Amino acid sequence: MTTPFRIAIAGLGTVGGDVVKALQSRGAELSQRAGRPLEVVAVSARDRKKSRATDVSSIAWHADAVALAQSNADVVVELIGGEEGAARAVVEAALNARKHVVTGNKALLARHGARLAMLAEEHGRGLKFEAAVAGGIPVVKALRESLIAHGIVAVRGILNGTCNYILTNMEATGRAFEAVLQDAQNLGYAEADPTLDVGGGDTAHKLALLSSLAFGTKPDLERMSVEGIERITTDDIRFAREFGFRIKLLGIARRIGNGIDQRVQPAMVRASTPLADVDGAFNAVVADADAAGPYFFEGRGAGAAPTASAVVADIVDIARGSIGPAFGIPAKSLKSLETAPAGAVSSAFYLRFEVLDLPGVLAEIAGHLAQSQVSIESMIQRGRAHGEPVSIVMITHETAQSAVERALKVIATSDKVRARPCMIPMEAA
Ligand SMILES: NC(=O)c1ccc[n+]([C@@H]2O[C@H](COP(=O)([O-])OP(=O)(O)OC[C@H]3O[C@@H](n4cnc5c(N)ncnc54)[C@H](OP(=O)(O)O)[C@@H]3O)[C@@H](O)[C@H]2O)c1
Q1: The one catalytic residue among 206, 218, 332, 335
Q2: What's the confidence (pLDDT) of residue 428?
Q3: Which of 126, 153, 348, 419 is the most exposed place for a label (fewest CB within 10 A)?
Q4: Whose CA is nearest to atom 12 of ligand 1?
């Protein structure tokens, strides 16, 4: 009789609860795939009395999640969340106790991933995190194991369902960011404190992991520029449509020269390309595997079932004996990330200026742009009621981002310009 593979689960919330449910309801088939019986031997959460969708009364309960590391489990599944505190303590204790670890915790891994990967390898154990990026989409495994022959040139993705839901709804209804965010909160699609989502931080965590998997570098949040969607207006969305684009919050990591450029930012994506068609709370990732071509992954990036699906896949992988380094190459070989040189990042840009309707204002803006060698491909000017600011929108030719930033810094100081100019890069494809 094959020895069972023993599983301990820390965190029985949205994801943890569904992992237990999947292991209970589909146990026989999953055990066949694992090649040995799968058995949940211990669980932990904060409140034992809380009513839960899944019956865990027959499973050993630990009030202290760190104690799971001392249980007889083979794998500890961390589904508590947060980059420090209990989540970090459980993962470190489990690896130190020579347990495999499966987690969905992007915040923890984006901060401490390189060190935890090292700890896992020192103890000869697996550390898997498919659920940490894009929920049910198996993109971690694809980058770690499948798309390796030719190397990755770039990874781009819509990695935050809340932001994509908000942008899709702003476009569909013509309502402003704040109103749509409020709806999303009422419907439970956005957190009460939405900062991590709409400010781009959550996308940054996921991008740090994708970048590491793609380029063999340590996850690095410091060398990443991060901008959220708070400043996107319905005007921007309407103008984007006029130019044949849609606005998406993208996480982008790409090789430029000897460096890696990592950025989270709203971007203009050409309409009718696969990324532009990703609507609502869906996620998508495009991995450009050089000669092997671009690969497009789309699916549900969050929610109980999709995320639990990724967690269960990792558990079964480890039970089968597939361990391997967390980021695809030995942790000690992960390089520190070198940023791409400033000035090497270039694209066409959408620029919007809110200006006073006065003679000479257009010439002043065009003059500053020309001084920084930024040339304009097309322009739209929309008047408003007398005395109100007008919008001037320009699309530039391909140009260095640093040159556009330089020009905008000067333009923002003009007394004819009413708000910080808006700059959104146009994605080439
Ligand atoms: N939800 C998603 O769609 C999704 C998608 C991708 C990744 N993830 C990641 O998956 C992880 C879990 O997310 P979630 O949405 O399932 O979170 P959640 O619903 O808030 O559940 C968290 C669970 O952790 C337990 N917990 C909190 N502090 C604890 C402690 N000190 N010791 C033991 N247990 C503790 C809670 O206990 P009580 O139940 O007793 O309060 C709860 O069961 C996070 O890292 C998240 O980023 C989630």
Answers
A1: 206
A2: 75
A3: 419
A4: 79
